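Limitations

Structures in this collection are predictions, not experimental determinations, and the ligand pose is part of the prediction. Treat each record accordingly. The example that follows, with C2E as the small molecule, is included so readers can see exactly what is and is not provided: the inputs are given verbatim, and the output is the predicted complex.
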Amino acid sequence: MTHLEKAEELLQQQYHCSQALFGAFAGDFGLDLKTAFKVSTCFGGGMRQGGTCGCITAALMVLGMGLGFYDSQDRELEMYGNKKTDEFIQRFREKMDGKVNCREILGKDISVPIEMAEIRQQGLILKTCPSAMSVSIHLLEEMLEEYLKEVAESSIALEDIPENEDMQSLLKRVSKRNRFNRNVNNLLFASKKDIGFIQFDIRKFKIVNDLYGEKFGDEILYFIIRQLRENCSENQFFVNLRSDVFMVVTEYENAQELVEFIQELDERISYYKNVRLQLSYGIYTVEDRNMELRQMEDRAAMARKRAKNNVLTNILFYQEQFKDSLYNRKFIEENMQLAITERQFQMYLQPKYSIAQNVIIGAEALVRWKHPEKGLIYPNQFIPIIEENGFVKKVDYYIWSEACHFIRRCQEEGVDPAPISVNVSRIHLRDDDECIQILSEMIEETGIRKELLELEITETADDQQISNKALRLKEEGFTLLMDDFGSGYSSLNILLETPFDVIKLDKKFMENMMVSRKGRLILEQVVAMANKLELGLLAEGVETKEQIDLLQSIGCDQVQGYYYAKPMPAEDFFALLKEQNALV
Ligand code: C2E
Ligand code: CA
Ligand code: CA
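Predicted complex:
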């Protein structure tokens, strides 16, 4: 039976048009008729006040259900919903010659008892309402179909969509997500066991699509769905949230069981037709069952994203601090621009020393964010985030400019300026020559000597583009320091490709090397290599006398670290320099 047939049948049985129309769609949302009538009767009551045709009210409810607009937290969906509502009314009006009110359509007012009696007498409902109902249902089906096509195009290209899929089954597809939610809610309500949310996706799925074509990408997704179907038992539910993101909700007895479930699944889906799929899994184990479903999903999503960036494991459990870091991210994104305009960023300088001469030989410029309410915020808390959104460029420009002005001030006040090294985020090296131009302008504007502004660059992997840009900077006459050498990603290859002047040994690298004889040998060789290549060498994060002695014994003279001095406000460093000048 079609929606229209069903609605007409209900109308014949003396139900109001809103009840008949909503009732005709009830089954699509898993609602029984009785509940549907209750809901639509309440809405009908409200509708009477406004006088809008009951078919419209009911149709908008169906539209809302069909499109899933019942999440008041989701602003985007809400706006989309409002747009669709307006669109529906507009199209209805066009089809009904401008009529949208019940009174205009029936020619009488149902809220006036005498007129209502006449309506009954003359059988007006059965004469006029079916046309409004048929227009509404027709429009509804059209709009839902359009929506589903949209969804299908963007994400559900997942399950085989038969060419001429009818409205009913299309609606079923949308209600799949609703069904999943219902099942999960039931599980949360009824299960005596613990419940875990597992969310996973395919690393670099976009690249898989680009490499092998989208059709192949879709095949992979069908394949995963099939495997999930086979792997999930009665009380385990899965849904394909969007594109390559999946979620499984399952009961479990101990955490190990969850990990084993994932490992088993991973074994099944980590290869498709010889293509290796790397999956990242985030797990949220439910503590408070009254929490909104969406929040539980979000937590699993946070863990999944963390797992993606983790080099050691592809399975991570959610931890509370993930949420903190989300708040942190939001705070940073909302406040970073103001921080620039209000000059909340400050340049701290950490002196570099020569061990043998016991004098300052330079400094590294390190940013601090002095927030009026939050106090001092350290770069590790915000640099990674602003590197992602590109804002780090502005912060770097700010610090570079501060460094240039500091050098100029030394020159002006007759203090022997020490070279200041600034950090150059990799982002600058990815795009055009903007950073070269800006650096040149700053140097020209402040009139400082170019060799007094040194650039620290971290290379995390072989990257031709970055090497090329570094080469350009070198050609421009800048001194290049290779930051964080030995921190994990840097390879000796980079030394070959990029003309660095100085290697900065990473703190961790040095610490690791110092604990064993073999490590000390490697360290010694690095020093020897730097000497042979005529590269400067500076050890970072030096904290103890023991480290100083060892470095000195193997011929590394330049150091930076708490042993000598912590990063300090520029003013304090200026005083230190002045003092040193006075001694010489
Ligand atoms: P980095 O460039 O490796 O900077 C050295 C970090 O080690 C600094 O942390 C410094 O305070 C710290 N440090 C120095 N000596 C010691 C020591 O003896 N012991 C210990 N435990 N730590 C020491 P900070 O200032 O928190 O900076 C962290 C990172 O943030 C920097 O690592 C750098 O990658 C980034 N960063 C800082 N300022 C800037 C900036 O202006 N621009 C960009 N792009 N990145 C920056
Ligand atoms: Ca640095
Ligand atoms: Ca470093």
